[in-house]
Amino acid sequence: MSEQQRHRTDPPGDNGGNPVTGGGNLGELHRAGDDLLAAGDEAIRRALSGNSEAFLRANRQKGGQ
Amino acid sequence: MAVRSLMGVETEYAITGIASNGVVSDRSRLIESLFAAARTSCRHLRDGSSGLFLTNGARLYVDRGYHPEFATPECHDPWEAVRYVRAGEALLLDLARQVKERNPHLRELSVFRSNVDYDRSGTTWGCHESYLHRISTMELPSQLIPHFVTRIIYAGAGGFNPMGPGAEFTLSPRAWLLPNVTAVDSTGDRGIFHIRDEPLAGAGWNRMHVICGESLCSDTAAVLKIGTTALILAAVEAGRRPGTAVQLQYPVPAIRTVASDPESRKGIQIQGGGQLSAIEIQRHYLAEVEACPPDRLPAWAGELCALWRAQLDRLDARDPALERTLDWAIKRALYRRWVSDRMPWSTMQRAGRLLELMERISARLEVGAINIAAALSGDASAESQLSPLEPLLNAQGLDWDDMRLFLRLRDELYEADVRFGQLGEKGIFEQLDRAGVLDHRLDRRAPASDARVEPPAGRAGVRGTWVQKLWQEGQAQQYRSDWTMVWHEATGRSLDLHDPFVSSAQWK
To answer: Residue A33: its chain B contacts at CB < 8 A?
Structure first.
């Protein structure tokens, strides 16, 4: 079984080990976090070229300081 | 009376044009077109070479490596500096739009706030800071280096280690391209502390030139990066020695340790024994600044210290709200989510480390090094080249399909990281900002569009006013400008701007 297949059985909810802290309302914090992640997924989807390897090659340049 | 402060930011931008047929445009022609558009649409005086000084006192020019660079005018506080950085970005975006309109064959013309290229060549774009001071330059490295090593916990751009094959997340990609503690070189053999003796002002003034920083999208992170550094410099100028108690034993490994520790918990070895975390070192600097008499600090110090403390408290508490505020924390949240829908984040990191190991081992094989990515993108016979490496793969519980998926996700993450700071509506940060899901803007001194045209007060104001006046009078072609002078080419008559706080000047 590949890691991809095994992943489908992994428990959800990995938040990167960040305990939810701070003085804010817990529900609001979660909602704001969920909104960010949903918008982030959509933004990445819109931004990617569809062929990242080719994009990275095209974008290669000399750089600066 | 509070002390006066002066600072500025130079940012190098990457630019890429792709034609409708997919061919990558010649970059030098693109840049020539960009500057032709600038010369037509911006009121300016020419600098000493091919660059332009603008009515807002800023300078737009082509720098080493052939890319556009925007230097803000001299600013009086970090909010103002960030406002002019954003004005420069708006200008570049507008110029790129003009070039694209005049070149309909271009499918895409993009300008990026890139910090690194993910081709493992060490390519990087600078975002340099300058601070005016009167301290002996010999004193600065020891007082500032522990700050530069640790400020990346709020001022890191986030991304991936640009010298590794995996997608190893880092708070600061540029940290991996600083092999020295101090250095004069700014293009290759860089140091955490840049030693440059070029004050750009009259006698008695020095300029601290900082090259270890990164281009940032978050206003909060950008203001903190500049503001904390300016305040530490002011504290040193006031006679304090904030760096002395937190001298690092090994600054180069230390900045990599901090860059690899999103929790900011790892200890950094201090000279004389003991360890401190990056947060502890930053709190020490904050306390040293706050111990200064208010009249030895700029008037904005209190506000900046409050912002500084708030972010350190959030980092200490591992507050998830940081994921809407700081560049690196936003990226880390987004990238983890992007990957975890396709592969566990931990597997992604494991596969990256495995790829690095495989590359090292394959380099020692009798048949010669194997290009693992190329072999995996080929047919089954190409994959057979990889059989000597299979035991390593099996030991990690992975198979070649996992590695293929890893490589595809890695390239997507690399592209996403370049696109994160892309100027304009396709940029990932820009999209998030427009969607209202971020919390990075600072209400006080909100970015104003007039920074595109109007200069700040002081020397930049004198320069900008003369750029405007000479342009309006149709005389701009006869004059040139640099940071310390505006002069008439034919007669040599000049406006002396060596005093960085000058508010008016006479032609001589």
So the answer is: 320, 323-324, 333
Complex ipTM value:
0.93
Render pLDDT for B293-303 as a digit per residue (tens, 0 to 9). 999 999 999 99
Of A7, A61, A65, the CB nearest to B64: A65
| Catalytic residue check, B341 | no
Q: Which residues of B touch A42 (CB under 8 A)?
A: 431
> Residues B108-147: pLDDT tens digits?
999 999 889 998 888 889 999 999 999 998 999 999 999 9
**Is the CB of A32 less than 8 angstroms away from the CB of B428?**
no
Output the pTM of the full model: 0.93
What domains are defined for chain B? Answer: 7-326 (3.30.590), 333-420 (no CATH)
Instruction: Give residue A22's region: left, alpha or beta (phi > 0; psi -120 to 50).
Output: left
Question: In residues, how long is chain B?
Answer: 508
* Residues of chain B below pLDDT 70: 367, 444-449
R_g of chain B, CA atoms, integer Å: 24
Q: Which of B14, B211, B435 sits opposite A65 (nearest CB)?
A: B211
Adjacent-strand bridge partners of B68: B62
